[in-house]
Amino acid sequence: MEIFGIPLQAFLGQLLLGLVNGSFYAILSLGLAVIFGLLGIVNFAHGALYMMGAYVAWLGLEYFGMNYWLALLVAPLVVGALGLLIERTLLKQLYRIDPIYGLLLTFGLSLIAEGIFRDRFGVSGQQYAVPELLQGATNLGFMILPNYRGWVVFASLLICFGTWYLIERTRLGSYLRAGTENPALVQAFGVNVPLMVALTYAFGAGLAAVAGVLAAPVIQITPLMGSNLIIVVFAVVVIGGMGSILGSILTGLVLGLVEGLTKVFYPEASNIVVFVIMAIVLIIRPAGLFGKER
């Protein structure tokens, strides 16, 4: 069976690849949306935090024998702790001034991180093996599904929609939203708003680290892996609406699929299709598909 002259298995395989890429877009744009939506910081260091998560997994395996499943727990904690340190020492000075300063600071931090890792590990890249439990593939009848890629999609959806539920449907989430809109009132109720803000940034950094660990067995781990992806992720956030958590998740998944389909029908445009869509969306709806007009 063929679709537009393309064998069905090849077509579905490309769609799966697009969905895997979309899962990374979704989880990374989610972290950006959480940080911007709750703190108002355009976190350009997100790509570097993603890269660090992958390196924590690789270094843990190489030097401490830490397996993949433990890395999924340790990497977010390590990178989240670094994010907490960044927020407490640097970003907290910038909340009451123009957001461009936060963007420039985090951009500078990302360059510093990339430079340190490039000096230490070079740019050739490191390999991270697929965990034994997720090796191989499953025959679905109409296509062969690599087990690890299926896991990436499942884990990303679980994390993304779990985070959305936490922020939008729980009391903790209501405290977070209220703390950004009226911190003095929330603090009057005994909530430590500065700590809550710091933990929010740490949580966003931890999400980037989780994405890095999930990506480690799929791509080569290099100091530049974050900078190669972060521009596309920012485009995803802009299309979904800056600060919109649900918008970032859905837009990331859909744009991954669109990118996968573009590789099937017009491969030359696959690297720019996201930016073309961003330009069209900004012309029609400047606040993004799910953003709120001001």
- Low-confidence spans: none
- Per the principal axes of the C-alpha atoms, what is the gross shape? globular
As a percent range, the share of strand residues is under 5%
Mean pLDDT: 89
Structural class of the helices, strands and pairings? mainly alpha
- As for the number of domains, it is 1
CATH topology: ABC transporter involved in vitamin B12 uptake, BtuC
Determine and state the CATH class.
Mainly Alpha
Listing every helix as H and every strand as E from the N terminus to the C terminus, the arrangement reads: EEHHHHEEHHHHHHH
> Could you tell me the radius of gyration in angstroms?
19 Å
Query: Based on DSSP secondary structure assignment, what is the total number of beta strands?
Result: 4
Taking the alpha carbons of the first and last residues, their distance comes to: 49 Å
Q: Tell me the major beta sheet.
A: 2 strands, antiparallel
Helix content: over 70%
What's the CATH architecture?
Orthogonal Bundle
